[in-house]
Amino acid sequence: MGCKIEEFQQEQKKRMRAVQDSMDTLNGKWKISIISSICCYKKRRFSDILNDIEGISNRMLSKELKELEINKLVKRTVLDTQPITVQYELTEHGDTLQTIISNLTDWGILHRNKIVGK
Amino acid sequence: MGCKIEEFQQEQKKRMRAVQDSMDTLNGKWKISIISSICCYKKRRFSDILNDIEGISNRMLSKELKELEINKLVKRTVLDTQPITVQYELTEHGDTLQTIISNLTDWGILHRNKIVGK
DNA sequence: AATAACAGTAACATAGAGGTAACCAAGTAA
DNA sequence: TTACTTGGTTACCTCTATGTTACTGTTATT
């Protein structure tokens, strides 16, 4: 039968795994920029995002978008236009990231002040 | 003179940089585990952390601790014992991470349920 | 005299993240 | 006819993060 300490350690392991899950989904040099770009305009085409984010290549954008789609954060829609355009938008689940991103923003500012020394 | 759109874009860039600052300080395969270990016991020695985290090597622990120290999240104290022991604890600044880690935990659980499908 | 604990460091190896450049197919404007 | 736009894919290369193993110096224990 599990004693209190074992239970606590199990809980702790679960929490660690959860944090790592979050970090993994947000990781990749461009993910947060991409999410922000889409979020900012609600709906955004591939080439628009490519222009929004300076420095990103089409290869990386394609790759990161795929991962975001797999993680159900972003929805991809092919529009029947000429030439074909593809629209990306956040899913409901993607929207739930906003609190986290907002917290990361706040802490990042705090941290920079602390390190650089205002 | 900057128009509204330019100002907005500048703000957006700052926010992006802030998020990346946060992600960068938390990145590294073991950082969050290390922070959690120290946080859990308030004060923790090198070899204790090494035992707390399964899979980490002394090389990586040393390296990650250094980065955490540079980022003023962790304080290192050499104790005058035999043999010498080194104590690590969170700084006040390190403590401010708790909200973020807690948010990342919550979202990670939510996300896993969404992806695995409960 | 040999071994172990402590807190690391040094040397080397490898997988994977990310960068660069070229290419594809379909349609369209010059 | 040529070149451009759109949304990618493919091949190749490099660099960094991490892993593995062995080693350091000091003191205490056996």
Walk me through what this model shows.
Two copies of one chain form a homodimer. Chain A is of the alpha+beta class. Chain A has a single domain (30-117), classed as Arc Repressor Mutant, subunit A (Orthogonal Bundle). Helices cover 66% and strands 13% of the residues of chain A. Chain A contains six helices and three strands. Chain A has helices at residues 4-26, 31-41, 46-52, 58-70, 92-95, 98-117, and strands spanning 43-45, 74-79, 85-90. The first copy, chain A, has a three-stranded antiparallel beta sheet. In chain A, β2 (74-79) and β3 (85-90) form a beta hairpin. Chain A is globular, with a radius of gyration of 18 Å. Chain A starts with a helix and ends with a helix. The mean pLDDT of chain A is 94.
- What gyration radius of chain A follows from the Cα positions, in whole Å? 18 Å
* Number of contiguous helices of chain A: 6
Overall pLDDT level of chain A: 94
What is the first-to-last residue Cα distance of chain A?
A: 53 Å
Low-pLDDT stretches of chain A are: none
Into how many domains do the coordinates of chain A divide? Answer: 1
CATH superfamily of chain A: Winged helix-like DNA-binding domain superfamily/Winged helix DNA-binding domain
Spatial shape of chain A: globular
Structural class of chain A: alpha+beta
Chain pair forming the biggest interface: A-B, 38 and 38 residues
